[in-house]
Design goal:
3-stranded antiparallel sheet; alpha+beta; 82 residues
Amino acid sequence: MIDETHVAELLAAPDDDAALILLEGRAQVVDAASLAGEDCAGAAVLLTRAELAERLGTATPAEHEVRLLARTLGDTAGKLGA
């Protein structure tokens, strides 16, 4: 459900308010404007780009950190039943 590409895409987003969301069982990265729109109604926000960079302590983490975080996020989403 959530993999390294989602985490890398969020890190590469130009806007700190971009978010990794779960919508209808699918993970995706959206910008703040899209998140506020009708297409994202009911989405669960996992974290924003700013939160991700703060959590990792850098905007350019090592591959193993990205992999580990993706696995953790995927486990969390699975436990939520998403």
